Amino acid sequence: MRHGPAHTVTIVSLSILLGGQSALLHAQATFNMDLLEKNDHLPAVDLQRFNQQAGQPPGAYPVSWQVNGVTLDARKTVTFRQNDRGQLTPCLKPEDLLQAGVNPAVLSQAPGATSRSCPELNALLPGSTVNFDFAHQRLVMTIPQALMTHRARDNVPSALWDEGISAFQSNYRYSGASQRTREGSTERDNYLMLKSGVNVGAWRLRASNSLTANSDDKPQWTTSGAWLERDLTRWQSELTLGDTFTSGDVFDAVQFQGISLASSDAMLPDSQKGFAPTIRGIARTNAQVTVRQNGYVLYQTYVTPGAFVIDDLYPTASSGNLEVAVKESDGEIRRFTQPYASVTSMQREGSLKYNLVAGRYHSDDASQRPLMMQLSLMRGFAHNLTLFGGLQSAAQYHNLSLGAGQGLGEAGALSLQLLNARDRHQQDPIDGRAWQLQYSKGFDRLGTQLTALFASALCHAERGVFQPG
Fold first, then answer.
1. For the chain, how far is it from start to end, CA to CA, in angstroms?
2. Whole-angstrom Cα distance, residue 149 to residue 299?
3. Domain 52-147, what architecture?
4. CATH, domain range 276-339
5. C-beta of residue 384 within 8 angstroms of C-beta of residue 346
6. Between these two residues, 458 and 285, which has the higher pLDDT value?
7. Hey, where are the domains in the chain?
8. What pTM, to 2 d.p., does this model score?
9. pLDDT tens, 277-333?
């Protein structure tokens, strides 16, 4: 009984002593060099900086990448430097940012992207954040969606496209009639149409033929067209040699025999065909963006903090109001309405359509088949602006066209096309001019679309020279 109290006091005193030592060790992290060296009284190494977040020394570290919540497969060695706040910041090369998914067009315009001064990520890509998790050797970056390479909906990478097998194909249509006259004779009429083709690798040979036979005349074999074509995947274009038509985007389509290089809408995903407005906004946090029209959901996606762009809406009506709702991660919902309207000549922002042809004009009159060349371009820009133009040229005829289409929001859409031609078939050259103005506006409440077309031509327009597309 006499030893009980003394024993109890000793345990309490020991506990207090150990607690005090733990607090002291936590406050000042040091390493005793005497444990590694035989020399006594070496100065202790201060480990306090390693207790601070990102307090490690600058240098090269092998890290894993996480961009906008997605972990990249590759592991890279990244050089880090200390910024003005004493934190480690990565020195990212342009190829590193491209691998992270940054839009090349955005990166080419970023100040200091190609310099060796190692600017901070937020200076290169405004609104971006970066965090280096040293314990797990992980680099976590958040980049606004508007600065990233965006893949349109239902887009299939060209690397997965297939030219198909080599094969022969033929479609036909036959019609015939036989009738006996009162005199006892028999009259027969037969018509056969053939559309045949041969596929070899990337090349496709097509021909359209017809055979007409009746009781009175000899059978007639007619070839209405034959051409060789192939896709140019890299340019999303099509090369055609033989009998074909020009595009009717700027000028009226005409048939010719020669060579054509033209952009192909067939290579675009459905979400990039036709015209649709581009929606821009800003998200405060990781947010859900929903686009509605007339109460129906057209589009829904998730974006990172910062600016975002939606440019892959399916084409719907030529005008209307888009209701956009941005739901933040904290539950806040912000809404805005974007009205839009379009005319036939308008293109999506960033879209480019072109057609370059050279050959001989096709006419039923063999004496009226001059050599010709035609170029047409249509380009969509920001703020619902489209610029287009073209040139037609032959031995004694030249035609130049320039135009623009502009979406005016709630006020509708407007396009203007100007043409200037010179005809030298006569002894004296004849100049002519024409213009075409188109206006379109929708009235949602009435379910009505108003489209007005005004055109005027001077000089020899009655001869068919001026035919705006």
1. 114
2. 19
3. Roll (3.10)
4. 2.60.40.3110
5. yes
6. 285
7. 3-48, 52-147, 168-235, 245-257+342-469, 276-339
8. 0.76
9. 999 999 999 999 999 998 899 999 999 999 999 999 998 888 889 999 999 999 999
